[in-house]
Design brief:
The chain is mainly alpha-helical. 72% of the residues lie in helices and 0% in strands.
Length: 249
C-alpha cells in the first residue's frame, strides 16, 4: 500500500489498481479460490470507480466483501459512498472498516479527510485518541488533523498537531515539511532549514522537500545550494507542480 500524498478517491486508486479482465460488460469472475475471486471483484469495482460508473462499482465491491472481507474493499466502498454523497453509508462503512481492520492506516487517513470535509473536529479528536497505542497510526492521525486545520486557516492549531506527530514519529515528513513551510512564512528561516534538512537526510527527497529547500536556501543567500536543489527538483520531479511553479527560475 503506497503512502498517502493526497487523500480521497485518488488515494484508493493509486493503491488498488490491478489486473482487470473487463469493465465494459457484466461478467463475474470465473470460480477461483476465495481470495483471488475477491480480488477480481475489487479490481473491477475500482476500475468502475475510475470510469465514474458508481452503479456498477458498488455491487462488485460488495461481492468482494461477501466472498472475503478486506480492508481495501471496505475502503473503496467507503470512498465510493463519499463520491455519491451518501454520507451516512460512508461513515458506517468507515466505522466497519476500522473496527475490523484497526491497523489499516489508509482507512484512518481517508476517514480523517471525510470528517474534516464536514467540519467534525470533535470526531477527529476521538479517532485520534483510539490510535495512540500505535505510533505510526498516531503520527498519521496528528498529521491528518494538522492538514485539516491548515485547510481551515488555523495555522496555530495545525502547528500543535504537527508537533504532536513528531512525538510519535520524529522523522515524519508529513509533519516536518508543513512545519518548515510555516516557519519559512513566519521568517524563522533557520528553523525551517533544520526541519527540511532532516527530511532530506533521513527520509529522502520529494518534490515538496526540494521546493522548500530551494526557497529556504535562496532566502538565506546560499545561492549555490539553492541552485543544486532546483536542479534536483527538475531532474527527479520534472512533472510536479513544484517544478512547474519554479520553471521561470
Amino acid at each position: 500500500m503506497k503512502k498517502i500524498i493526497t487523500l480521497g478517491l485518488g488515494v484508493i486508486l493509486m493503491s488498488l489498481t490491478g489486473c482487470i479482465t473487463s469493465v465494459d460488460g457484466y461478467q463475474r469472475p470465473k470460480p477461483k479460490k476465495a481470495d483471488i475471486r475477491a480480488k477480481s471483484y475489487l479490481d473491477l469495482g475500482v476500475a468502475y470507480i475510475q470510469k465514474g460508473r458508481y452503479d456498477l462499482a458498488e455491487p462488485r465491491l460488495r461481492y468482494s466483501i461477501e466472498i472475503q472481507p478486506s480492508a481495501d474493499a471496505y475502503n473503496a466502498l467507503a470512498v465510493l459512498y463519499e463520491e455519491k454523497h451518501e454520507n451516512a453509508l460512508a461513515e458506517e462503512t468507515y466505522n466497519t472498516l476500522l473496527a475490523q481492520f484497526p491497523n489499516y492506516a489508509l482507512g484512518y487517513m481517508n476517514y480523517y479527510v471525510f470528517l474534516c470535509k464536514y467540519d467534525r473536529q470533535s470526531q477527529i479528536e476521538t479517532v485520534a485518541a483510539k490510535m495512540q497505542s500505535n505510533k505510526l497510526l498516531a503520527a498519521l492521525g496528528q498529521v491528518a488533523a494538522g492538514d485539516c486545520a491548515v485547510k481551515k486557516g488555523q495555522t496555530g492549531q495545525a502547528e500543535q498537531y504537527y508537533k504532536r506527530a513528531l512525538q510519535y514519529e520524529p522523522y515524519s515528513a508529513g509533519a516536518l515539511l508543513p512545519l518548515a513551510k510555516i516557519n519559512y512564512e513566519r521568517g524563522f528561516i533557520e528553523e525551517a532549514k533544520k526541519q527540511v534538512d532532516l527530511v532530506n537526510n533521513q527520509v529522502g527527497y520529494s518534490a515538496k522537500s526540494l521546493y522548500l529547500s530551494f526557497l529556504i536556501n535562496r532566502e538565506l543567500g546560499h545561492n549555490m545550494e539553492a541552485r543544486n536543489y532546483l536542479n534536483e527538483l527538475r531532474t527527479r520531479f520534472s512533472d510536479s507542480e513544484e517544478a512547474k511553479e519554479l520553471s521561470g527560475e
